[in-house]
């Protein structure tokens, strides 16, 4: 959702188009395969060439970004159980399943997120804005304005708001007493 908002607002994206929109992500993935190889690749010059553009990087891989660049990171927080539910549905559609139990996955994710938050706090190459997935859906204008202010770019807030699609919030966590 953040990448779609950035694109709508006028930020050029770094994406290779290899992973196209599908039932799991009808608006697309906004990814570049080179990101997956950050840990192994020595040549990361493409990141320097991406200055002024948005690159989608999962929290776990923040540690592999070169310290020679400066990064403005939009860190998207989402309920871990919602993320796992979304991933489980995606695997099911592909005829796959995870061998790792939910409690173990939660532990792994929490460790990754804590490590990423530590890096964002203490590595001088990072400046970060923490966003909450649910807050963006509930208050897209406020979120878009926070992003514009953080990036210091003349982004089109109205188009960013239009890019937020609450119908895609399909794996929400139900509170006790809520309907199914």
Q: What would a concise description of this structure say?
A:
The protein has 180 residues and is mainly α. The chain is built from 7 helices and 2 strands, in the order H-H-E-H-H-E-H-H-H. The mean pLDDT is 87.
Produce the secondary structure layout.
Blueprint lengths: L1 H8 L35 H5 L21 E7 L2 H14 L8 H21 L3 E7 H6 L1 H12 L5 H7 L17
Parallel strand pairs: 1-2
Account of the protein in words:
With 180 residues, the protein is mainly α. 41% of the residues lie in helices and 8% in strands. It has a two-stranded parallel ribbon with strand order 1-2. Helix 1 runs antiparallel to helix 7 and helix 6 crosses helix 7 (157-163). The model has no long low-confidence stretch (mean pLDDT 87).
Largest sheet: 2 strands, parallel
Radius of gyration: 17 Å
The level-1 CATH class? Alpha Beta
Strand order of the largest sheet: 1-2
Separation of the first and last Cα atoms: 24 Å
Using the alpha-carbon principal axes, give the shape: globular
* Number of helical segments with 4 or more residues: 7
Share of helical residues: 40-55%
Summing up helix and strand content along with how strands pair, one would put the structural category as mainly alpha
**At CATH's second level, what is the architecture?**
3-Layer(aba) Sandwich
> Count the strands?
2
Q: Which stretches are poorly predicted, pLDDT < 50 over at least 5 residues?
A: none
Count structural domains. 1
């Amino acid at each position: 959702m953040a990448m779609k908002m950035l694109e709508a607002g006028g930020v050029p994206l770094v994406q290779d188009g290899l992973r196209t929109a599908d039932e799991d992500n009808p608006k697309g993935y906004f990814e570049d395969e080179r990101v997956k190889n950050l840990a192994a690749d020595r040549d990361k010059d493409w990141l320097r060439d991406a200055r002024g553009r948005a690159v989608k990087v999962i929290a776990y891989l923040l540690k592999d970004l070169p310290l020679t660049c400066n990064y403005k990171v939009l860190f998207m927080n989402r309920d871990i159980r919602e993320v796992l539910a979304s991933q489980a549905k995606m695997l099911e559609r592909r005829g796959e399943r995870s061998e790792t139990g939910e409690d173990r996955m939660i532990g792994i994710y929490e460790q990754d997120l804590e490590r990423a938050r530590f890096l964002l706090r203490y590595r001088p190459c990072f400046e970060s804005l923490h966003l909450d997935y649910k807050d963006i859906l509930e208050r897209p204008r406020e979120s878009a304005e926070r992003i514009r202010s953080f990036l210091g770019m003349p982004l089109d807030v109205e188009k960013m708001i239009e890019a937020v699609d609450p119908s895609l919030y399909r794996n929400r966590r139900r509170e006790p007493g809520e309907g199914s």
